[in-house]
Amino acid sequence: MGAIDLLSSYFGFDEHNTDFTTELIAGITTFLAMSYIIVVNPTVLLPAIMGFNEQGEINQQTTIDGAVYDSNEVFQMLAIATIIASVVAVLVMALYANRPFGLAPGMGLNAFFTFTVVIGMGIPWQTALAAVFVEGIIFIAITAVGARKYVINLFPEPVKFSVGAGIGVFLLFIGLQEMQVVTGDPATLVTLGNVAQNPAAILGLAGLFLTFILWARGMKGAIIAGIVTTAVAGWGLLLTGVASASALAPETLLDERTGEVTFEAVTSPHYDITPLAGAFVEGLRDIDPLTFVLVVFTFFFVDFFDTAGTLIGVAQFGEFLDEDGELPEIEKPLMADAVGTTVGAMVGTSTVTTFVESSTGVEEGGRTGFTALVVGALFALSLIAVPIIAAIPAYASFIALVAVGVIMLQGVLDIDWEDPAWSVSAGLTITIMPLTYSIATGLAAGIIAYPLVKTAMGERRDVRVGQWAIAVALIGYFYVTTSGMLG
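^ AGZA family xanthine/uracil permease-like MFS transporter, sequence as received from the core. Prediction below:
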């Protein structure tokens, strides 16, 4: 029996109607769609560790355990920590859960870590890591006893069957912004960007329509082809002088002083991450109990519902859900998220979560843990190839999100729009996600609305006690996070 046969037997390729090549392409696609996190996560977390000077600029040096480190060294340490946490979580997803989902430190949660907890509340970054660690331990415990699965299975059906479409709109919104097709506007919040004057937007749109054409023709790896072709075209135009570095080079590679391309921040990775690893232990000392509990509470709620929404949405897209809208053995992928978060805090990064970009690999046919294993292997390879990953510009990698976002809109067909409870809950779930830039908030809006509308319809007995309890808990969460209690 050859290696491919062994892999097929272990992951159940035949059972899931897939094959080695399909899973390999799916894994590469997912990785390309989420690889930006390797350089973006350190960028977001860097201010938390470096701090700001009186001019509001990030300090160029900081002291950790008596040793002085410059911002580039800390950036590299954070990149390595991001990769390690991702690899561990993805391996659990691949080998234990056998699901095609990628995991990494989550966007939004890392910003909350830096700008709300550390900078806004003045909490040391070591204590913030301790809060993430405690959250991870709680997740492991409640996942092991089945409590997490029980709560997720209480989610109303209209919410479960609308999450996929909601994530689709969310991905579209994120992707079009990163491609600079949609931009901010002080009057209307968002508007169409100056596409004709923007080489990045033009290239991104060209790559997007190439991807759609290849996908429509049934080509395997259409998303990979779109991303790689666009990235190569961008660098070609940049290196030949047709476009400037500021127009087409990835932001993480631009020197703030000269505006030229530099690989200084992503070359020669700082593999010694001992200044970050274990820092959470120090963070457990001399904590203010009330503040610490509030931080853990917020991390817990956001990650719980964000992960639940992503798993259900991507699972619906991949047709993994049963007739009740439940993902069989959901506790296994949930454990991957819990273990990843705990290990991430131990090595020095923020909360790890399942990535919505996993839907790109699912669209390419990924159905088993081998897709996740490929993602993990590519993350591990990134330990020595960070500059290559950093060279993929946003207008290329985010093509995947827009393409899959459009495809995921088919989820609206699963919704009974004639039923008020379904239409209100599903409608809020789908629209609130992109409008608040949060899967968790969209999910919560639908969960809160469902028992209220059901009761108004005279069908109060159809609402389970647990669904009322979740709705009340979510209202309490929104009060805490919007009342100024967290600063």
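The mean pLDDT is 91.
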